[in-house]
Every structure is written in C-alpha cells, then in structure tokens.
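tool_call predict_complex ligand=3,4-dihydroxybenzoic acid
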Amino acid sequence: MKSVRSLSRRLFGSLALSTTLGLTTALGLIGASAAQDTIKIGLIVPMTGPSASTGRQQEAAAKLFIQQNGTTVAGKKIELIVKDDTGAPDTTKRLAQELIVNDKASVLLGFGLTPLALAVAPLSTQAKVPQIVTAAATAMITEQSPFIFRTSFTLPQASVPMAEWGLKNGIKKVVTLVSDYGPGLDAEKWFSDTITKGGGTVVENLRVPLRNPDFAPFLQRVKDASPDAVFVFVPSGFGATFMKQFSERGLDKSGIKLIATGDVTDDDLLQEIGDVSLGVVNTHHYSASHNSPENKAFVEAFKKANNGMRPNFMAVGAYDGMALVYKALEKTKGNADGETLVAAMKGMSWTSVRGPVSIDPETRDIIQNIYVRKVEKVNGELYNQEFATIEAVKDPFKAAKK
Ligand code: DHB
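tool_result ok
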C-alpha cells in the first residue's frame, strides 16, 4: 500500500491527507442529511485531461440510469451532481469536501484513477459517507475505508485469468509491460505470479510512466527479448497510443503475441485503434458485445442517448454504481444515513449488463464473471468477442490474505 501511495504522490503531486479543523467541525454537523427529502449523489470524475473518456462515459451512464429508473426512490427525490476533477487528486479531495459539507451529499461515486480514489478515502471514513468506486481498480483501494465499495473491477481479478489462459495456450516465456502506478503494478504482479507458478517464465517486467508515455524504447526491449507473448496493461483512454506505437515498431508482425487486460482494447477506443487490434486476446468483465438481453437493451439506449457513442467498461461501472445506490435506498426505505446504506449494500446482488454480480460483504468489492475475449470484426465494427467465462471471480488479492 505504501508503495502505491508514494508512487501516486510522485505522479500526481502531494496528497494533502490532513483534515482542516473547519472540515472536522462541518463533518460533525452533517447527521441531518439522513432525514432530507432530496438525496444528493456526487459523481466526481475526470472530464478533461488524458482520462476524460472515463468521465464522459460515466456521466452518460449515470444519467441514463436515472432516465430509465426515475428520479424518485422510496419516496425520496434523487439529485445527481457531476464534478470534473481533471484527474488531479487535490481537486478530487476538495470537490468531495464541498459535496459532503456544502451540498450534504449522501453518497459519492466515480474516481477515475487510483490516486483520486485514495485522496477521498479518509474523508469518507470521517464523514461516514459511502464512497462507491465506479472506475479505479487497484485491489487495495477498498481497504482504505470501511465506507468504500466498488462496482468496477480489480486488476488481479482480470490478470489472473489472462495468465491461466496463456498457460493453457502454449505461452511459456513472457514480458510484461504496464503503466507504472497502482493498477499496473497489480496487473504485473498477479499475471507474473500466476504464469510462474504454472511453469512459465517472465523474462522482463517493464514499467512505463503513466503521463505522456513513450512506449518506443520499451517495445524495443520486448522485441529484443523475443518472448512468446507480451502482457500489457494501460488505463482506459491510453490504449490507442500504445497500439499505434506497437504497430509502428512492427511488433504486430514480429510473431510475439499481444495479450492484455481489456483496458487496452477499450470499447471506447477500438474503432480508433483499428485492425491492428484484430486477434488480440484479453480478459475483462465487460464487452459492449456481451450477449444478453439486458446488455443489448443497455447498449441500444446508451447509443441513442449519446449520439451513437458505444458504452465501455467505465460506463458499466457507473451504471452499476447507480444501481447499487438505488437498490440500497429501496432496502433502507429511503434512509440515506451512511452506516445504514453500508449495511444495505453489503451482499447486494443483481443482474448487471455485464452478467451476474454481487457485492462481497467482507471486502465490499464486486464479485463478477471475467470473460476471455478476442478482438474480431462484427458487421464491419471491431468488438471484444467473449469466448470463455470464468464465473463469480472474487478479488484474488483479498482472497489470498485469508
Ligand atoms: C485505473 C484506471 C483505469 O482507467 C483503468 O482502466 C484501470 C484502472 C486506475 O487508476 O485504478
């Protein structure tokens, strides 16, 4: 945990974790919010900067959810307040404070990158306001506050099945290439450990800076190592840059197989990435082409409401975050007290557009299917086509501690 925090600091500037006296006082006065007639939900996401696609997708999904499910739950009016943190943790923290203290928000959602989720954890604990992480995916985030829940995924959850698929499909010698911060380090560790335990060899662990990444020198090292496969994680919004450099360096014709978490072949970017992604095998929890009646209806409605934009896994994280809040409020009969909501959310299960999901009552993380997919063309458009399912996967990081 410490190392991820210090990495975050290095990348995003210092996190002011101390709380001002003013805030402490104000947080002590917010108990009244439980009795309010309007329940406010704050959605804090990057709407600008390199992770802007996360904010765009999550805002669209949260709004669609409200449009479909109404603005009243258990007799209470719901108000969604959307804030752009630009991807800067100090801003995320300030916006969370304002939402809690000034707006008296009952729940906070969003958190597009791990350092942004971490910046708010001490506030959610102190104010007893549920913090639903709908995007960020470093495993340890949910351990930072008993008020944190997650409807996205964890990198260990996605990376272990990728390594297991590799072992069954003749991949023995690998190089890993990840963004150098929390989720990348999780992906690297859990993929590498699983491959090694299964008899494979990891010849290099390459870490690329998150901001303004130049993949070229790292791709040259992948080429020089000539592994069976290179395993890649970059966060949502960065996959097109990676794939462009991958093909420019001729890696797509090198015989080195590209395998990844689904963050790289993000539905939001696949059309832009183009045919170089064809055949890339990857593991994740959501594909826009997931074959279920719920998902077909969701994709159609999402596109209709957003000028044809295709939903990605970030959209689904926010859509399910809203579902979790609505379901919890129904259960508490509209009582939005933080501890009451936390108790209601633990163990909640529903049919998501991604498949069946539930909230692990012990870890507050999501339990969900992980799908093995391959990028293919369907009616002229690129999709991650699911071809195998690993059912009801818990976060392996927390399961290993038991
Ligand atoms: C994180 C961000 C992403 O965009 C993603 O795809 C996975 C993880 C994160 O910072 O936790």
